[in-house]
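tool_call: predict_structure(chain=1)
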Amino acid sequence: MIPGFASRRRFSELSEQEVLALAISSEEDDAQIYRLYAERLRAAYPASAAVFEDMAAEEDHHRQVLIERHRARFGAVIPLIRREHVAGFYARKPVWLAENLPLDTIRAEAEAMEHEAAKFYKLAAQHTTDADTRKLLGDLAAAEMGHEKKAGQLVKTHLPEDTKAEEDRAAHRQFILTWVQPGLAGLMDGSVSTLAPIFATAFATQDTHTTLLVGLAAATGAGISMGFTEAAHDDGVISGRGSPLKRGLASGVMTAVGGLGHALPYLIPDFWTATTIAMIVVFIELWAIAWIQNKFMETPILRAVVQVVVGGALVFAAGALIGGG
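tool_result:
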């Protein structure tokens, strides 16, 4: 038996009083989640924060209505029952993950919260044979669907198109600074800086195993170095570039990927076959970097090609000449 699941009850086993108590605790949890979202967003996205504050207030209002209904039908003592006590009940993501969620994801999560609650109560109402329970669950479904519509109205009130567009631009800029820029720098470093040692070793030894070992060492070392450097040189507080851990991870991983791309072909025993494939991989890597620069960094494609492809070709030529000499 799985620990922690023995005491969980099915939704169909709950009494009407317990269903109402579950709705009350769920409304309370959702209000707290919305307030935490608002707190996370307040500094960078004040308009979106205002939306979540109002949504929390709506949840508080519905919780009060449900409490009054419970008091009228069952008295003042509300059973202690929460989502985690009921098998199959819809779950919420841990609220502390809000710190790591982009703005669009938080908005989508809020919409999903309301939709999931409405859908659950509606389906539960369809599967009960007791008239009073069916009415109760139907009322709860209607309340949750009302929340979803109200959320849309609040977005229109607090987030007119120009304000929403401004916040979306800020969120996109933060994504670029935190993930794309350090990741791109790492990919460029891993792809270009490892060209010379890998191909110098290849042409000097014409031994695929030795070349593979040098390539693995160069890619791994460069990835670790770039990751630590990115994470340590800027804590993101003043620059606004975001979490140093995220930036270091993006830079380190992409540096290693860039180096491994043209090292792994040397798993092939035949030297010229491996070298030909490695050259093709280098060509693809360099053009991919130019494309990323053009798409995300808005670098003109011609300039990106000159900077990356021509620069990479020069480094490759240097490695081939040194190894061939």
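agent: The chain has two domains: 9-159, 167-324. Proceeding to next step.
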